[in-house]
Amino acid sequence: MRKIRTIAIVMLSLLVLGAVSAWAADDVLGLWKIIDDKTGKPTAYVLLYMNNGKMYGRMMATISKETGKIDDTLATKNKKAEGIAGDVPYCGLDFVYELQPKGNDWKGSIIDPVDGKTYDCTVKRDGNKLIVRGALKGTGGLLGRNQTWMAATTAELGFTPPDSKSYVPVIPKKK
């Protein structure tokens, strides 16, 4: 009887540890480096954060196409998002918004800061990568493209972002 109880406790512990590991693997919050799907080069850093049960993505820094180095940050906010109303800077922009968990994915919206077009967005973790899919609204995700985001660190970023608990999301609008 004691042996069966010990085996049951060990099996239950393994099951709980496996569930915790699976939950941690699906965690998508934190800092990510956006990789351009056409050039394969990094373009920006984004912080995924939660607010009122929904996930948002705020631009932390942009990366120069020419040098591959950070050229704008939350501190400088030099570059403007041409497609967004209000002449807002890229850095600080919540361009991924209102994502909610749907099975293993997160679903919501994403806006292209260059032209202001809004797309359905699906985010799914794959190891140290996120697969971010933007698709034309109403197509069920069929007409769109994927982008890969790589896990990043604040050391790469070069500064520590403000505490995301203080963020109040602002949904961008097209110009």
List keywords for this structure.
16% helix, 175 residues, alpha+beta, Lipocalin
Describe the structure.
- With 175 residues, the chain is α+β, with helices and mostly antiparallel strands.
- It has a single domain, classed as Lipocalin (Beta Barrel).
- It has two helices and nine strands, in the order H-E-E-E-E-E-E-E-E-E-H.
- The N and C termini lie far apart (71 Å).
- Mean pLDDT is 86; it is low at 3-26.
Short description:
The protein has a single domain (28-166), classed as Lipocalin (Beta Barrel), CATH 2.40.128. The chain has two helices and nine strands; from the N terminus they run αβββββββββα. It has helices at residues 2-25, 154-157, and strands spanning 30-35, 42-51, 54-63, 70-73, 94-102, 105-111, 118-126, 129-135, 144-151.
Termini distance? 71 Å
Main sheet characteristics: 8 strands, antiparallel, barrel
CATH-defined architecture: Beta Barrel
Computed CA radius of gyration, to the nearest angstrom: 19 Å
The helicity comes to 10-25%
What sort of overall outline do the alpha carbons produce when their principal axes are compared?
globular
Order of strands, main sheet, comes to 1-2-3-5-6-7-8-9
Task: Report the uncertain regions.
Answer: 3-26
Q: What is CATH's topology name? A: Lipocalin
- Tally of extended strands? 9
Strand proportion: 35-45%
List the helices and strands and how they pair.
Layout: H1 2-25, E1 30-35, E2 42-51, E3 54-63, E4 70-73, E5 94-102, E6 105-111, E7 118-126, E8 129-135, E9 144-151, H2 154-157
Antiparallel strand pairs: 1-2, 1-9, 2-3, 3-4, 3-5, 5-6, 6-7, 7-8, 8-9
